[in-house]
Write a structure and sequence with these properties.
This protein is mostly helical. Helix content is about 60%, strand content about 5%. It folds into 2 domains: about 70 residues, Orthogonal Bundle (Arc Repressor Mutant, subunit A), CATH 1.10.10.10; about 130 residues, Four Helix Bundle (Hemerythrin (Met), subunit A). A hairpin with a 3-residue loop joins strand 1 and strand 2. Helix 1 packs across helix 3 and helix 6 runs antiparallel to helix 9. The chain is elongated and about 65 Å long. The two termini are about 35 Å apart.
Length: about 240
């Protein structure tokens, strides 16, 4: 497992975060197996070209994310996958390019199915007047982007993310708020994939929007579930 990493001493990023990222990607890709002991301080400092302080800060960061654990006389061990916090925005960012995109999108869609239809139902019941106005303005911008002569991927991604985040923020349930924020990290790549070639599912968004604005929780839930089918997001059905 020696010489697993390259020097990052010239990186413009915070050194300890860059070190943490490289070690994390080694863990997430399986190059550093679960339960294995990572190389010692001196070896890693030499490989990365950083100080012990930067390395220790990196290990502390990865320990806080339950990717690593340090034990006296044993060393620093890779924690079992079941303990990893896959909803950590930074961890999601570090996963980019490691996990097969189609697998990642299927898993993300499965998570959305578990929580988003109910979020839509709650938003239909509990969204404030101000939140409904903001949702209405946001949906109108979605229509404007979709009707433009030339499709603007960046503009659509931004407004689509805002639409879904507003729904989580409008549930009246504080436990949904972190999902709205955390999922934005995953939404971006997912939306770019699903909206390629202008496949925007605007009608499905309209159905969700109108159900929420009408205060119809059951319809909002049903419309959301319909929107979250694989076929609506350029994904083959799971066999």
């Amino acid at each position: 497992m020696s010489n697993e990493f390259s020097s990052i001493s010239g990186s413009k990023r915070s050194l300890h975060v860059q070190v943490a990222r490289e070690i994390a990607r080694g863990i997430l890709s399986g190059k550093l197996p679960q339960g294995s002991i990572i190389p010692g301080e001196m070896a890693l400092c030499e490989q990365f070209g950083v100080s012990r302080t930067a390395l220790r800060e990196a290990v502390k960061l990865l320990t806080s994310k339950s990717l690593l654990e340090s034990r006296p006389k044993i060393g620093t061990r890779v924690v079992h996958r079941s303990n990893w916090n896959f909803l950590d925005p930074q961890l999601i960012e570090w996963m980019d390019g490691i996990i097969d995109s189609e697998t990642f999108y299927h898993q993300f869609l499965g998570l959305r199915r578990a929580i988003e239809p109910e979020a839509c139902a709650l938003a239909a019941k509990f969204a404030s007047v101000e939140q409904r106005i903001e949702l209405s303005e946001t949906f109108q911008k979605m229509c404007d982007v979709s009707e433009a002569e030339e499709f603007d991927q960046e503009a659509w991604t931004e407004i689509d993310m805002k639409f879904h985040n507003l729904i989580f923020n409008s549930t009246g349930n504080d436990f949904y708020l972190p999902f709205g924020n955390i999922l934005m990290t995953m939404y971006k790549n997912f939306i770019v994939h699903s909206s390629q070639k202008g496949d925007l599912c605007l009608q499905e968004h309209r159905n969700i929007y109108e159900a929420i604005m009408a205060g119809n929780a059951d319809k909002a839930r049903t419309c959301s579930a319909n929107h979250l089918q694989e076929s609506k997001h350029r994904l083959p059905p799971l066999i």
